[in-house]
């Protein structure tokens, strides 16, 4: 079973994440931030990961700590659920439109964290979420999930559509990269380890 559970408790937040890579796209997410919940739901539904996220943070300060710690928890859960990463395809990509917006996400689960995010936001906030925290979420996920993540909004006018396309594409790219290839023995690397 490629599953993991992560609990992160700090002086600012308390986050619980349960992740199953071989799921059906079911989700229960409650972070206190409606827009973040909506994006996590898109990620789960389009990756076919089963995802539970419960977070309580110091939202009276702002949403930064909650967003960051949810990304840390989700990244750590992804890393743990992948184990030694043996047998997986390793890389994946997806293009996803959302009305006038188009996003592309490419991932490599090769253990080397890196993020390139190109998402021009025009509005300062998406619902109750600072727009810049979308980029920070993705960067933090890449570091703690030990993956290279290239995420681009290629074009679009509506920031909600751009963000939703981005998270749907992330889900589909992760679905492709985490799939088990029955032909593969060990890890997808000439080094023999990831």
Task: Report on the architecture of this protein.
With 194 residues, the protein is α+β, with helices and mostly antiparallel strands. It has a single domain, classed as Ribosomal Protein S5, domain 2. Helix content is 35%, strand content 31%. It has four helices and ten strands. It has a four-stranded mixed beta sheet, covered by helices on one side. Helix 1 runs parallel beside helix 4 (159-178) and helix 2 (64-82) runs parallel beside helix 3 (132-145). The chain is globular, with a radius of gyration of 16 Å. It starts with a strand and ends in a 16-residue tail after the last helix.
Features:
Ribosomal Protein S5, domain 2; 194 residues; globular; 31% strand; 4 helices; alpha+beta; four-stranded mixed β-sheet
């Amino acid at each position: 079973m490629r599953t993991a559970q992560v609990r992160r408790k700090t002086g600012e937040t308390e986050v619980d994440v349960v992740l199953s890579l071989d799921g059906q796209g079911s989700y229960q997410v409650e972070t206190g931030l409606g827009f973040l919940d909506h994006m996590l739901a898109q990620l789960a539904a389009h990756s076919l990961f089963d995802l539970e996220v419960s977070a309580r943070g110091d939202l009276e300060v702002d949403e930064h700590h909650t967003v960051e710690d949810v990304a840390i928890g989700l990244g750590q859960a992804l890393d743990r659920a992948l184990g030694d990463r043996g047998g997986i395809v390793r890389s994946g990509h997806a293009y996803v439109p959302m009305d006038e917006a188009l996003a592309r996400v490419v991932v490599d689960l090769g253990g080397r964290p890196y993020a390139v995010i190109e998402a021009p936001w025009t509005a300062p906030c998406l619902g109750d979420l600072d727009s810049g925290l979308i980029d920070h979420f993705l960067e933090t996920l890449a570091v703690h999930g030990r993956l290279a993540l290239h995420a681009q909004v290629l074009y679009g006018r509506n920031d909600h559509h751009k963000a939703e396309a981005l998270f749907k594409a992330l889900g589909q790219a992760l679905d492709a990269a985490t799939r088990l290839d029955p032909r593969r023995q060990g890890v997808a690397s000439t080094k023999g380890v990831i």
